[in-house]
Write a structure and sequence with these properties.
The chain is of the alpha/beta class. The chain has one domain: Rossmann fold (3-Layer(aba) Sandwich), CATH 3.40.50. The chain has a seven-stranded parallel beta sheet with strand order 3-2-1-4-5-6-9, with helices on both faces. It has a three-stranded mixed beta sheet with strand order 7-8-10. Helix 1 links the parallel strand 1 and strand 2. Helix 1 crosses helix 7, helix 4 packs parallel to helix 5 and helix 6 crosses helix 12. The chain is globular and about 55 Å long. It holds the Pfam family Epimerase. Belongs to the NAD(P)-dependent epimerase/dehydratase family. Dihydroflavonol-4-reductase subfamily. Keywords: Oxidoreductase. GO terms for molecular function: oxidoreductase activity, acting on the CH-OH group of donors, NAD or NADP as acceptor.
Amino acid sequence: MSDRVLLTGISGYLGGHIALQLLNAGYTVRGSLRDLARADRVRETLSRAGVSTSGLEFVALDLSKNEGWSAAARDCRFVLHTASPLVLRMPKNRMELIGPAVAGTERALTAALDADVERVVLTSSMAAIAYGHETPHPEPYTADEWTNLSGRGINAYQRSKTLAEQRAWEIMDRAGRHHALAAINPAVILGPVLDHDAGTSAQLVLRLLNGSVPGLPRIPITAVDIRDVAAAHVAAMTSPEAGGQRFPMGEEVIQLRDAAQILRQNFPKRPVPQLNIPDWVVRLYALFDSDVRSSITELGTPKHLDSSAAIALLGHPLIALEASLLATAESLIAQGLV
């Protein structure tokens, strides 16, 4: 079997970085796109990042359709499933997120099993670990913990990531291939954007830089650098110890207000907001905005992740949060997005 990797969601923020690292490592990458018309753009983006794209090929796949999945995984040694619906605002119908996330995971893993690949690496999330817990949680969340879907304030995204990952483990366990799956559970992903599409995660930094965030609520952000997350996916493909494991990623927490201050200091000409929004104002606004309502439980509540397994997998410490924040901002400016 060749060293070909099926990478779903190659056009995404994380998918592009994973493709970059895979191609640099000499793998043949079969990247999935919903629309093959985007193939040239993805190839150009990766070429500008300094990697040869001679080992890059594309296939059309849709999370909500059966067509093409079996053929896409055929002759692949590994499957990296990063594709999942992301939105800037929570949909009124939560199944718009949950349905494609779970169904896409089912299709990806079924195709991987049919192709008898060595390892599937699933992009899960901190959202599948650290939410809905009613009691204070001073210790870092571990890989043994799952988001409590019956808890208060669970939004559609957290539900979609939790159900999708749980379904992945069910499929692999039923097939007797528990150790052929590894899940990466990153916190908020920051780091350099590769093209003009900032992606959902980097939108936060973009909105701080362009001043479109009206003020700064007391919300802590657990974050991890996209380069570390991409490297963890690649390492988990081949590490014998990674099989059957979950890898939370995100040691550092920063208050949104402190992140804004760092950006103001380093980019003084940018209209980064300075107004601190009191908790009571956020709670009042939440009465009229469902997105704000789902964030109420996050006010002043930091969430740390036990990232020790991911650090051991990578063989080096995680990139510092401030460095990641600044790299995000610098790349957004370089791409002309702000």
